[in-house]
Specification:
The chain has 524 residues and is α/β, with parallel strands linked by helices. Helices cover 29% and strands 19% of the residues. β12, α9 and β13 form a beta-alpha-beta unit. The chain starts with a helix and ends with a helix.
Length: 524
């Protein structure tokens, strides 16, 4: 008979939402449990500190359950578990725990490797690690993106996997030295647990290990260090530099001239001209970090590689052929500092068809009426919508130069790695369900339109990928579904309003304090 409680929890969360599975390795001491997304605690997580709280909890190992049953029961009933604790049915019956509303019975068993997708009616294979059990429960509840913390997978040399023994020394394999000291435990079976993790990887859109000292190589690793230190850059700019030799020099010097000096992460092919150029420029610009790849990834794979090493609390993509006003990063970072309710800022951009600097473009066209939107061969301007999630579901208007909080990737995952054109749009829609964005109505960037760019060269791919992003994350409350396509993949042509007054204003951002004040006043 199906488990009623588990049926009620099936797909509790929307597809695409993320949770954290809290493992028990020593690195957990250096990694805070996120409070803004659901978390799964396991085994003796309550030893971490007296105030530890997790959303969900599970434990299936009989040695742990029987030795620490009173501690586990107290942890569940004293508020350590906010929602539900998933415990074996046999344990609940033996200890009379069936009347506790927070406790949900589960069944585990079997020796054949499998990932259970219907745990309400079938037993779960334990996979030689409670983490695998937590993964199956998370999948049942609708989560498709996971973060692992404290998953160090490091037990030294294990000669007899699964052997039951008493630990007579200080426990060096868990976050507490007393975790199993003086108690019975099983040596881990690392090979079989790696098999289980490989199975889980096939069922989730994304699993990322954020454990600082992990030896597990099944999942991508995104260390916590970029949000832990107080001595980081405010901004990390990620440069995907493939087939970019004609633009890279200007791009790097454009970034180096920002009043808010960013960490510049150049992702390029190993031994390429771009790598050699970046290495040479590093002699003059010390803020450059080079990430080399053997092959040419998609632009979003390149961004993801940059994100993994970024140290800034704010991130931005810096396209090699685009340029910025010198105050652009400072204005955007200041706004994110002053508006904790905002997670992404984006601004209007001038449009050029030439490889030129921002100042060069501005000096030629500051008092010229520009084309609104992209028209082949003509200088123009992107004037984007003020942010509204419903309108964002009609088409992307975030523009080419946004800045967003780095910790969004901790909560929502990385950019879609296989998309060619709309991976950024997919991520903006993904975070828009619960996060706010802010439009800066000034052209702080210069976008270079190129005939060989994918939006102009392959508008069908752009449109198809955008439709897919809307199906996954769009707002259907206004019956919004179809994009409004325009020439070259430009999804929305937004007309300038009567109050847009950059014309004849050579120093339209002479003082960024005034600009910042105007935007904040507008929001209020």
């Amino acid at each position: 008979m199906p488990n009623k409680k588990l049926l009620e929890l099936m797909y509790k969360y929307d597809y695409g939402e993320m949770c954290t599975i809290v493992c028990n390795g020593p690195s957990l001491l250096d990694t805070p449990i996120p409070v803004d997304i659901p978390s799964f605690g396991t085994n003796r997580i309550y030893l971490l500190n007296e105030n530890v709280v997790v959303t969900y909890y599970t434990c299936v190992n009989p040695l742990v359950l029987n030795q620490f049953k009173e501690e586990i029961k107290f942890f569940i009933q004293s508020g350590g578990v906010k929602e539900f604790a998933f415990l074996p049915e046999w344990f609940i019956k033996e200890n009379g725990l069936g009347e506790i509303d927070k406790i949900v019975p589960i069944q585990t068993g079997g020796v054949l490797p499998r990932f259970s997708t219907d745990i309400a009616v079938e037993k779960m294979w334990e996979g030689y690690t409670v983490t695998f059990v937590a993964m199956q429960i998370a999948w049942h509840m609708g989560f498709r993106k996971l973060r692992l913390i404290g998953c160090d997978h490091d037990y030294g040399e294990v000669k007899k996997p699964n052997l039951e023994t008493t630990m007579t020394t200080v426990d060096e394999h868990h976050f507490s030295p007393d975790y199993f000291k003086g108690y019975r435990w099983n040596y881990p079976d690392l090979k079989r647990s790696e098999l289980a993790y490989s199975l889980a990887k096939k069922f989730f859109a994304e699993i990322t290990n954020m454990s600082g000292r992990t030896k597990l190589d099944v999942f991508d690793v995104l260390p916590y260090n970029y949000i832990q230190s107080d001595d980081l850059y405010r901004v990390s700019a990620i440069v995907s530099a493939y087939k970019a030799k004609d633009y890279l020099y200007g791009c790097l010097h454009d970034l180096a001239n920002q009043t808010e000096k960013p960490e510049i992460i150049v992702v390029c092919k190993k031994n390429s001209r771009e790598e050699k150029m970046a290495a040479k420029i590093m002699k003059d610009i010390e803020d450059i970090v080079i990430v080399s790849t053997e092959n040419v990834p998609t632009v979003y794979q390149a961004w993801n590689l940059g994100i993994k090493v970024a140290k800034g609390k704010y991130l931005t993509n810096a396209n090699t052929d685009d340029r910025h006003h010198e105050y652009a990063y400072e204005v955007m970072a200041d706004l994110l500092d002053e508006r904790p309710d905002i997670d992404l800022v984006y601004h209007d951009s001038f449009i050029t068809w030439e490889n030129e600097s921002y100042n060069s473009f501005y000096s030629k066209y500051y008092n010229v009426e520009l084309v609104h939107g992209r028209e082949r061969g003509k200088p123009g301007i992107f004037s984007w919508h003020d942010y509204d999630r419903r309108t964002l579901s009609e088409g992307c208007f975030i523009g080419p130069h946004p800045m967003w909080r780095a910790n969004l990737h901790q909560k929502y995952g990385m950019f879609h790695p296989t998309m060619q054109s709309a991976g950024d749009y997919e991520f903006w829609l993904r975070i828009s369900k619960k996060n706010n964005m802010l439009h800066i109505p000034y052209p702080l960037g210069l976008y270079m339109a190129r005939e060989d760019g994918i939006e102009l060269n392959d508008p069908v791919t752009s449109l198809d990928e955008s439709q897919h992003a809307i199906k996954l994350h769009g707002d259907y409350s206004n019956n919004v579904f179809n994009l409004r396509p325009y020439m070259g993949g430009e999804y929305l042509k937004v007309e300038l309003g009567d109050n847009y007054t950059f014309v004849n204003t050579q120093d339209f951002i002479e003082t960024f304090d005034t600009l910042r004040g105007d935007i904040i006043a507008k929001e209020e």
